[in-house]
Write a structure and sequence with these properties.
single chain, 3 domains, Pdz3 Domain, Cathepsin D, subunit A, domain 1, 378 residues
Amino acid sequence: MRALRFHSLFIFLAIFFPTLGFASGDRLILNAKINGESIRLAFDTGTPTPFTILSPTAQKLSLKTEQRKEGKYAFFTLYIEGYEIVNAQALIIDSLPFPDIDGLVGWPALWGSIWRVQWENMSLSLMSSIPTEILSWQSLKLDTQIPIAAVWIFENSNGLLYLDTGHSGGIALTEFHWNKWIKENSHLPRTLKSGYLPAAGGIFSTELTWAKSFKLGFLEIPCVIMEKNVFRWERLEAVLGIEALKHFNIVFDLISGKVYLKERPYSLRNFRYNRLGATFLPSSLESDSLVGHVLKNTPAYQAGLRSGDILMKVDNIDMTKWRSDPEIWKKEFWEAKPGTKYIIQVERNGKKLLFPVTLGEILAIPFCEKNRKTKKAD
């Protein structure tokens, strides 16, 4: 029963609060073959498990499996871009929060090879060596003792910058750096993001904004999403998610233990974010109540919603049935276009209250894109 409740929570958070994952079109994809059958695997540099594969895919391919204490595993030989991985084993899972993907390739799986990111089709290509041109790019040294992508970039610091292609955002700063930066940029609008993330210790809610430019060591990233970090990784200073990494051409040299970077033109477009300024989350994996977290100076706060409110209904949708009603999982809710209106019913101190709310363009990200284009034209 506990496993069933956990699974429904996973799906709910993945769809109702999509910050757990993102559309497969925004993932780096490796086209692979097992037993002559083509499959699609998402490359996640923040995943320490070499391979993860969906249960339906394992069944379809008739893979040999074995039950272990930590879960069920499949065994196979994998071909990726002509790169053969013999005696591969994958943790079998029931679902992923994005469509058309058969599983994940984690960071340890590709060690001993060289891969270049192809942003134009969101894929990776295998390289036999590093061309002279790429050797002139900025290089970062990987910490090879850590099973996810982490590099040294900060002077006089033992801290690490993590590169996470499985994270949909831009730059995630530690609480210390976030508080310092927000104090210096208190004028910036903010909203909330939430979801379920094992690397964050489970269910989380955190703040989100954007910056016209942000500098990390010698890397300067323009027009980038910023957030308060929720990851719990060793010696963590900051995380670069996919929206930050897209500002660079990237080569992962997993033979020499280096990452090569070169700036490339990239404009932030159509980033999905919470236009309500509030999240409603269960307080634990066992809780059925969705408890509100409301940020000041947002549409939610201006409408009268407050932290601690328990979500009952959105329009005529009974949100107390979130674990069992699949229609709830299909809604965009807070990430819908600005101007979308809802009637939200909450329970506060034992009383049921109704609040009309209108989603707003809280972050005004298009202004950031416009400024970049103007600067380029100059």
